[in-house]
Amino acid sequence: MEELNNPKLILQMDEEQLDYFLEKFYERIMAKNKVLPEIIDGEEAQGILKVGRTSLFKLRTSGKIPYYKMGGTIVYKRSEIMEYINEHKHDKF
Question: Can you state the percent helix, strand and coil of the chain, rounding each to 5?
């Protein structure tokens, strides 16, 4: 991650590049800790899937992504979100 050695590069990033950098940085930090919570909220599920609230709602209500209610709050299992992503992977053309 060259950007950590040269903070000026971070300032020159557009929004998409910054999002990618932050995602990789987060993954790197979490990999060092080796702890990712299994139960996640809708906001984190949206971030992982790169979708908005409405799209997440549609995935949930159509049964494509399982969800759970805990104390009236809708939550998801990280492993099931990742499974959904893997099932919808496209191979090379």
Answer: 60, 10, 30
Instruction: Enumerate the domain spans of the chain.
Output: 2-33, 39-87
For 53-67, give the secondary structure using H, E and C.
HHHHHHHHHCCCCCC
In single-letter form, the type of residue at position 54 comes to T
Instruction: Scan for tokens 């805990």, then name that residue.
Output: 70
Separation of alpha carbons 17 and 7, rounded Å = 14
Q: What is the pTM of this model?
A: 0.59
Q: pLDDT digits over 40-87, tens only?
A: 999 999 999 999 999 999 999 999 999 999 888 999 999 999 999 988
| Cα–Cα dist 60/4, whole Å | 38
Q: How confident is the model over 21-46, as pLDDT tens digits?
A: 888 887 787 777 666 678 999 999 99
